[in-house]
Amino acid sequence: MKPPMIAAAKGVHLVNQFRTVHYGLGPIGLAVFKLAASKERVRPVAAVDIAPEIAGRDAGEVAGLEQPLGIIVSSDSGAALSTDADVVLHCTGSYLDAVQPQLLAAVRAGKNVISTCEELSYPWDRHPQLAADLDREEKAHGVTVLGTGVNPGFVMDTLVLALSGVCQQIA
Q: How many CA within 13 A on the CB side of residue 80?
């Protein structure tokens, strides 16, 4: 990832935009896309999804934004991954064995990846060989993959425990 530029003068900040490919435009992917499109430092440049009802449509329209963005949703991941971008925001599945080919394609295209795949939070537990393969490819291509999924572990477990900790009794 390109580092942000440091302030040029007091009160004046120069900021790089991170160019993003959006891989998966289901409910979570669309929420990520909307948020990315609203941020000054993030610039969506490509989107890919296998759903035939959205392929070929403008991603801004699919996301319900006020105006089209000129980013046509592709069903061809190779085309989307060949776009000049800094990072792939990957939102397609929870299980590493199911999304591994998508992650490897992004890594081999020289893209950093941030994924909502829950099993990426600690992939060595259930899929040590897949984790090792992914790690090897990341190092070979000089990129990183970051898993940011919230389940299992946080929303369905830890958050509930933390929030209920102030209760005297849970019915």
A: 30
